[in-house]
Design brief:
- The protein is of the alpha/beta class.
- It has one domain: Alpha/Beta hydrolase fold, catalytic domain (Rossmann fold), CATH 3.40.50.1820.
- The protein is built from eleven helices and 13 strands.
- A hairpin with a 5-residue loop joins strand 7 and strand 8.
- The longest helix is centred in the middle third of the chain and has 28 residues.
Length: 397
């Protein structure tokens, strides 16, 4: 399990457990808001992760991202939050090497959509785990003002930041989030378009980079693309599956059903692909579960991990320390490392089964999950406690 590889309060995300050392590169195709910004996690040619520790990927994306996160999490004390967050995570790294050459082979594609107030870096734990098992994962950064921040590039070559849009008095949250969701769906579909272009070659990265995009040509297996996401990204995943049948399966981590509450009756029948929903216990209020029950029960698998909170499915628990976890709603009864192991092993086993793959590690993962079956509920289950103190409306549906 992860704790064999990871010291609890080290300032890096857990080390991925698959056979590949993970590489990371940021890719921007199109400088305007209609372009695509993604962080690509991929199997690399590096053989020893620890020997490359000085080249591990910086997790922190900059002050603009911290300010946006402060607006989302701590609007009453944004300056104090920003100072503490920068102090805690400014030197944090993801256990993946920055811009090494891609490993030989052809790798299945996963497009990943982040949650509200998040960014392309904050799901490094999930994305790098997938990449270590032979997947190329494109973590989108959404430009609908639901990310803590993002940016475009102006004619002078300068970054122009898109900041998180907080809910203002008089604004109905459903209307804001539903309108953002429509943008997100377009961005997710466009990301797959970009990956298809990258697989053909001849694509320019609009960010400074030593990572040669031509090495992706012919290396991306686009026969069975996978759409995945967490929270708001989970709702994004459901909508994209309904609209774009190029995606052959979906993984929704704790999907936030609020932005699609009006559309779920017409949306659900359109989702015909295999779908896995891995839920955390504390996030699942009855209203959210009732909306998920409308999904196709013949093609949807529901799993709930007991003793978990919403933030167990992103990087937060590993980087902010014990006090920070309480403040950020990331303190869970179940050890975060074990929650991470269970979540990732369920996800990878499911994807490999759907792809018709049976790697040797699956046997080990199945044995691990059998040993911890008391922590997993097959189906929908929840306590409805939201996010332990800073729920901005996640359970209103």
């Amino acid at each position: 399990m992860t704790s064999n590889f990871y010291q609890k309060w080290a300032l890096h995300t857990p080390v991925p457990q698959g056979p590949h050392v993970v590489g990371c590169a940021d890719i921007l195709v199109g400088k305007t808001a209609e372009g695509t910004l993604m962080r690509l996690f991929y199997p690399s040619k590096v053989k020893d992760l620890q020997s490359q520790k000085e080249n591990w990927t910086p997790w922190h994306l900059g002050d603009e991202y911290t300010r946006g996160l402060a607006t989302f999490i701590a609007p009453a004390i944004p300056s104090l939050f920003s100072m503490l967050f920068n102090w805690q995570t400014g030197s944090a790294t993801t256990a993946a090497v920055w811009e090494p050459p891609m490993a030989e082979g052809k790798f299945p594609i996963v497009v990943f959509a982040h949650g509200l107030g998040a960014n392309r870096s904050i799901y490094s734990t999930v994305c790098s785990e997938l990449a270590s098992h032979g997947f190329a994962v494109a973590a989108i950064e959404h430009r609908d003002s639901s990310a803590c921040a993002s940016f475009t590039i102006n004619d002078k070559g300068e970054k122009e930041f898109i900041l998180f849009k907080a809910l203002t008095p008089g604004t109905k949250e459903y209307e804001l989030r539903n309108s953002q969701l429509k943008v997100r769906v377009k961005e997710g579909i466009r990301a797959l378009d970009v990956l298809e272009k990258l697989n053909k070659g001849g694509v320019k990265n609009d960010l400074p980079s030593t990572f040669d995009l031509e090495q992706l040509a012919g290396r991306l297996d686009l026969s069975k693309p996978i759409m995945a996401g967490h929270s708001f990204g989970g709702a994004t995943t459901l909508c994209i599956l309904a609209e774009d049948k190029r995606f052959t399966m979906g993984v929704a981590l704790d999907p936030w059903m609020f932005p699609i509450k009006v559309d779920i009756d017409t949306l659900a029948p359109k989702i015909t692909q295999p779908l896995l929903c891995i839920n955390t216990e504390a996030f699942q209020a009855e209203a959210n579960m009732n909306a998920m029950r409308k999904l196709n029960l013949d093609t949807t698998t529901f799993v709930t991990i007991k003793g978990t909170v919403h933030q167990n499915q992103c990087d937060t628990p590993y980087l902010v320390g014990p006090i920070g976890r309480i403040f950020a709603g990331a303190s869970s009864p179940l050890d975060p490392l074990m929650a991470n192991d269970i979540n990732n092993r369920i996800m990878i086993n499911y994807i490999c089964k759907q792809l018709g793959m049976k790697p040797e590690f699956c046997n080990q993962y199945e044995a691990y999950l059998e040993n911890h079956k008391d922590k997993v509920v097959h189906g929908l289950h929840g306590t409805g406690k939201g996010m332990l103190g800073w729920d901005p409306g996640y359970n209103r549906i």
